[in-house]
Amino acid sequence: MAQQDVVFVFTADRPDSIYISFNREPVFNESLMGDAFRTIQLKHNPVTIQFKNVTKLSRLSLTSYGWPGNFIATNWIVEPEDSIHIHIDFSQKPEPAMKFYGRGSPKYQLAFETRKLNEQIIATEFEVYDNVKSHNQAYRDAGSLEWQYLNKVKTNKKLLSPQVYQTWLADIQATADLARLHIRSHQWTTNQQMRPVIRKELLKAPLKMDVSLGSTSRALLQYHYELLKWKVLQEHDPEYQYYELSYTLKITLDDLFLEFQKQPSTNQQFLMVYSLVNLHTLQQNFGETHPDILQKCLGIAEQTVTGIDLKQRLKETSQTIRPGTIVKNLVTLTEVGDTLTLSMLRGKKVLLDRWIANCTGCLDFKKEMIEQLLPKIKERDDIVIWSVGSVKDFDYWKKLLPTNSHPDFVSGWLDKQSNSNDWETFYNISYAPFIMLIDEEGKLISSTVRNIGTIIELLKIAK
Question: At what angle do helices 265-277 and 253-260 cross, to 10 degrees?
Fold first, then answer.
């Protein structure tokens, strides 16, 4: 696709605020919120947002707290040449309406009209968890909704470019496949008699992934990834609990890589790169990834991946997660307004704890550090705990310090609005807390562990 700018113009019938997320790399971008997101105030004048140098299919998501259910758009497909005026009519009942004008508007209109079918497919698995429907009924409903959604898009094929059309169909099928996988996984844990049927259904010969779709449909890669994760999990423990498909300590990244290597060549390459690019998000599926395991998996991927684009993506990712690489300098401000950078901490081992506001997980991790780690390093002047707050402004950060810091921590505010501070973007940080261990030379020890016991081991602290 040619390089183009994308333009969105927003208007509304009454004042409201919209949260917009634009994702240039919907498959290989760990930040699901996208690489460009902001809140815009819809008042009386149109609001124009332009994204420059868009070279491939991207995704748009919109959220409004004045909208029933909050989500207006989720992962709508954007093409480089799109120039769209989106008007939101909040006065319409029972739900607000949207109208689209400009280049590419039929695609957005279709996405808006079919959004509930996508939501309903995803909801089928939760109807099982909530005992609203039986496994078999929910499974059938997912198929019926998939059929309706596919037909809606196929009927409007002439309105869509070939790449958008094929990607959209792949998204629908993969979303339904993932819902069915989760339904069957839950059924596996509640009905042992069904296990032979489920195993036969889910472990049939894998289909070779289409190269073009692997680059445009995150849903497709997610389904293949989740299917292999289920295969590995049930082999390790047939008696797993249904929630362990989302989070388990029973499998590790190298277990998945062994399974990836059994897949068709194209699938291997996409899944390896996908899992490494999204490592920080996916590690929440199985706790943490020890740097020794990460080094092993990076080595396997570098020997396996041959596609030019995938090799480049793997190279870029390796520079941000491989143990031993120099960590990009981070610039923060202290409570008194002085500059504190990572380079100023050379000569010490650094535990960098990047946190955000109103984050229960961040507070829990701080409590673990205070109770389990601080007593072991109180006599060590060669180890620094650097608590970095990524919040909207300096004064707000200072108000949060009493609950988000400690006298024995070094605290800093990360001004992410500064054009010169792209540290979070460079490391694709999309969750919190984000923990990074750095050695005395400024080299990465690990950014994929958060268990205090593992941190003690890697920082070589006497137990």
Answer: 160
34 falls within a domain: yes
Q: Which two tokens stand for residue 366?
A: 């701080």
pLDDT tens for each residue of 371-422: 999 999 988 899 999 999 999 899 999 999 999 999 999 999 998 777 567 8
Domain end call among 84, 103, 122 = 103
The answer to whether residue 262 is domain-embedded is: yes
Write down how long the chain is.
Answer: 463
**What residue numbers bound the domain in which 272 lies?**
110-321
Domain limit, last residue, from 46, 76, 103: 103
**C-beta separation of 21 from 38 below 8 A:** no
**Which of these, 180, 169, 167, 91, lies nearest to 137 by C-alpha position?**
180
Predicted TM-score (pTM) of this structure:
0.92
Residue 136, C-beta contacts closer than 8 angstroms, at least 6 positions apart: none
175-187 pLDDT per residue, tens: 999 999 999 999 9
Question: What is the C-alpha end-to-end distance of the chain, expressed in Å?
Answer: 56
Tally of domains within the chain: 3
Question: Are the beta carbons of 27 and 218 closer than 8 angstroms?
Answer: yes
Burial class (CB in 10 A: 0-12, 13-18, 19+), 207: exposed
